Amino acid sequence: MNTHQRLQQFNLTALAVLAMMALSIEPAASDWYVRGALGYERSEDADLSDADCASKAPPALFGCARGPDGRPIGAYGDFGSGPLWELAVGRRFLPWLRGDLSVAYRGDLDFDGNANFLGVGTRQPASGELESWTGMLNLFTNLDTLTKIDLGIVEPYIGVGIGVARNELGRLRFSFPENTGNHRYSVIPSGERWEVAYTLALGTGIRIGDRTTLDIALRYNDLGEVGSNRGRMAMNTLPDGIVIDRIQTGLRTYGVSVGFRYRF
To answer: Where is the Outer membrane protein beta-barrel domain (predicted)?
Structure first.
C-alpha cells in the first residue's frame, strides 16, 4: 500500500468516527443549513504514464523505455485551472462542529502537456478535456468556539471531506509537428474513473445576518486517478488504428472558494 492509499484510509477512518459521534447528537431544527459556493482551482502536475508499461496484450502506449530527455516515456503537463461549482446541505451538531453533504462540479480542466516519444522531435503536444463530479461528506470544526475565543462575526474553521469522484477524460490527442516521417498525430480513447476522493479546507465564516454567513475557504483536493480506457488508438497513418492499454495520472487541485451558508 502506497502513501497516498494510506492517507486516504486514515482520512476515511477519522471522518467516519467523527460522523458517528456527530450523528448521535440531536440538533435543533434551526441548526440545518444550505451552502453554495463558487471557486477557482488549479491542478498540480499531472504526468500521464501507462497503467502497466510492460503490457503486451494489448500493448502499452508508452512502454518502459526512457525518452530523449532521460525521463520515462510519457506525457508531462497538468490540467490547468478552472471553475468550481458546489451545493451542500448540512447541520450544526455542536457549537464547534458542523457537517454537510456536498455535490461539486469541476469543468474546463484541459490537459496541456508534452510527450517524449523517441524519434519524432522534441515538440510533441498532448491535449484533452476533463470534467469531474464529486459527492462528499464534510466535517468542519469552528476554531473560535472550540477554543472559546470570541472573534465577533468571524468564525475561522478547518474542514475535511471524504467522498467519491467521477472523473471523465475526453479523447487525448498527441501531435508530432517535427516528425520527418508520415506519422503526424495519434488519438487515444476517452476514459472514466470512479475514485475515492478527499478534501482539506481552511477557511472562515463571516456572519452578515441572523441566518446568513459569508464563507471563504482555501482548499486542497485529491480526486483520485484520471485516465483513458483500454481501446483503439487512431493514427493518421493507420485509419483502423490499433488497440492499446490504459494510461493514467493523479488529479490534485488547490484553490479558493467563496459562497454563502443560509441557516433555516
So the answer is: 16-264
